[in-house]
Design brief:
Length: about 650
């Protein structure tokens, strides 16, 4: 392992600098901090009560729960739900809106029982409900005892079975609203409602011309996957009327995509939908819910811009825009203010979890080789030596160009058989030594020109992290989603290195090489050099979508999950530990059962014994070890 020189030797480094470097206050929404010791803190209530993450990890390790570990902070879910209700509450007061606000949590965003249980528990006092986008999600939602006032909204493509299940559930869940997402669903809904003699709440999802912005822009607009256009909307209303079910229509719904980065888009969509609402209300007198879907954006990079990883508005501004716009249009038409429903998922769930992984070791492109330059060494080697001796802070640009030229020469000469391996190694080492010097000079002079990106890259490291990006942060790979990453210790010291983070999979895509930054997207992250102590980093803001989408690439399974709550100022408690997958549980998902596996391995071992290739004692210990490994965590024991 090779250590880079600590350029400033930590002079004057303060935790404030770490906060700024990693952007903690920019994207953290008040949930994260650093203590004097330089350790990352979580403040789930944004108050005095805090958890030092390193303490939690050390405690868990003593109890044989080793990283990678997903930490969940259920109190953050509570804080987010209350912020959502408070924001709408404030807007409603400010604009003297006559209706109220009701939220539902879209299960698609995180269906984990342990997560939804918390959401339902803390949401009860707000009458917070659930949204299902498929039959399985509907059945999951029936597991939970929601408050009678809360809504259960059924979205998504629906066949006869989904419709029948939802309609039957209205017998014991009064609050179900079936949203018609496609016109062809309506016939089944009407027919089966009559057959089952139920009187369901119905909604219609409308297709708007307004689009969102950011990555999910295609979810909106006239070619969107879901929703009824104007003609379809009218024929749906007509059909309900002629079947005596128009009084069942109580919700108008739209959703123009997730992570809407521009507030203006939201305003436009609300305006368009409000106009439709007031018109439909004239035809369907029981209409009472104006459902604005999800899309409330999260500022992952802290830039407060309309870039994909950010949003140029905060929750309060979102609520203000919705309430104000809707009220204005309802007032113009003299229509009663509807109950506003929203299906914000990302905004509720995203902050509540983080992955802790240990960086096991670091790789540098450059390795030190012991050598001396002799008089009879080739000319090109002498030239490198000259560069090394003469390069200074004043002339490094010129020497950089020279040394690049010599490097080409070195490779050419080797390829032509004019140098042997030892000479090539010597030349390369000298070249890297020159680059190391140049790297120091570009840092000293604050030179940020792209010309030296090559040198910076050469000097960067690859840290090996004990996790799978495909399991724990799949959106990084799938859609280039950025997540903040911060070391959980040493934040009172200047990070000496920069590098990327490789995961445990054998996939070259398993590398985190893009990092959040207020001004830019960083290709390398500032990290500390590794020593004998474990070095942990947190990947943050993983609470939305990642649990649901993560996969078993290379058979790295679910990670350990731990629920942490704060009690008093510095007191925390572990509320729940859910062990991650072991080898056998992962293989089971692929239809290998444990007894079958053991039996097969056992018979191969037995065959080797029978053929005198293996003595029975060794055979026994091999089999015992295999049996033990089948029960172990899928990650590495670093
Ligand atoms: C995905 C989805 C949501 C959640 O969107 P977020 O951006 O996570 O708030 C809400 N409603 C519907 C219909 C969805 O498909």
């Amino acid at each position: 392992m090779r250590k880079m020189k600590n350029i400033d030797d930590g002079t004057g480094w303060k935790i404030e600098k770490s906060k700024e470097l990693y952007g903690i206050d920019n994207w953290g929404s008040g949930y994260f901090d650093i203590n004097r010791k330089g350790n990352l803190l979580v403040t789930p209530n944004k108050g005095k009560n805090k958890v030092e993450i390193l303490q939690v990890i050390e405690y868990l390790k003593k109890n044989r729960i080793k990283p990678p570990i997903l930490l969940r902070f259920p109190q953050i879910l509570e804080s987010r739900i209350s912020e959502l209700y408070d924001s709408f509450g404030r807007s409603i007061n400010e604009f003297q809106y006559q209706g109220s606000y009701k939220g539902v949590f879209p299960l698609k965003v995180n269906q984990r029982k342990d997560v939804v249980e918390e959401i339902v528990r803390v949401g009860r006092k707000y009458n917070y409900g659930l949204e299902a986008g498929s039959k399985p999600e509907l059945i999951e939602s029936l597991f939970f005892k929601l408050s009678p006032e809360s809504l259960l909204v059924c979205n998504g493509y629906k066949d006869k079975h989904y419709i029948k299940t939802a309609l039957q559930a209205t017998h014991f869940r009064k609050n179900i609203i079936l949203v018609i997402d496609q016109l062809n669903e309506i016939n089944d809904i009407i027919r089966q409602s009559k057959k089952l003699s139920v009187n369901p709440g119905l909604g219609i999802r409308i297709r708007l011309y307004s689009r969102g912005s950011g990555k999910w822009v295609e979810s909106g607009g006239e070619a969107a996957k879901f929703g009824l256009n104007t003609g379809e909307l009218l024929s749906a209303i007509e059909k309900l009327k002629s079947n005596g079910m128009i009084q069942n229509l109580n919700m108008l719904h739209f959703h123009i995509g997730s992570q809407i980065t521009e507030i203006r888009r939201i305003q436009n969509a609300v305006k368009e939908a409000s106009r439709i609402y007031v018109e439909v209300k004239k035809l369907a007198p029981e209409l009472e819910y104006f459902n604005i879907g999800g899309g409330l954006g999260i500022d992952y990079d802290g830039s407060k811009t309309s870039s994909d990883a950010s949003a140029n508005y905060a929750m309060q501004e979102y609520a203000n825009n919705v309430v104000f716009t809707l009220k204005e249009i309802c007032d113009e038409e003299g229509i009663e203010h509807p109950t506003i429903v929203s299906e914000s998922g990302r905004a509720v769930a995203v902050y509540h979890s983080m992955l802790i992984t240990n960086l096991a070791y670091e790789k540098s492109i450059i390795h030190n080789v012991d050598f001396e330059v002799a008089e009879d060494d080739s000319n090109v080697i002498q030239k490198f030596q000259g560069c090394f001796n003469e390069v200074t802070v004043k002339n490094y640009r010129e020497y950089f160009h020279d040394s690049l030229e010599y490097k080409d020469e070195l490779i050419n000469m080797f390829n032509l058989g004019q140098l042997d391996l030892a000479e090539k190694a010597k030349g390369e080492a000298l070249f890297y030594n020159v680059c190391q010097k140049i790297h120091r000079f570009i840092k000293q002079t604050g030179n940020e020109s792209e010309e030296f990106d090559y040198v910076r890259k050469l000097m960067s490291k690859k840290y090996i992290g004990n996790f799978s990006l495909f399991q724990s942060m799949p959106d990084f790979w799938a859609i280039g989603q950025l997540f903040p990453i911060v070391p959980i210790q040493k934040l009172n010291r200047q990070p000496e290195c920069v590098g990327t983070i490789l995961d445990m999979t054998c996939d070259s895509d398993g590398e985190i090489d893009r990092f959040t930054d207020v001004m830019d997207v960083k290709e390398m992250l500032e990290l500390h050099s590794l020593d004998k102590q474990p070095y942990y980093v947190a990947v943050l803001l993983l609470g939305a979508y990642q649990d649901a989408i993560g996969d078993l690439h290379n058979l790295f399974g679910a990670v350990h999950e731990v629920h942490v709550v704060v009690k008093d100022e510095d007191e925390w408690d572990i509320k729940k530990v859910i062990k991650g997958d072991n080898v056998s549980s992962v293989l089971k998902m692929l239809h290998f059962n444990r007894p079958g596996l053991v039996k097969s391995i056992e018979s191969s071992i037995q065959k080797a014994v029978d053929e005198d290739d293996l003595n029975p004692l060794t055979a026994k210990s091999i089999l015992n070890n295999m049996k033990k490994e089948i029960n172990e965590y899928t990650y590495l024991d670093f």
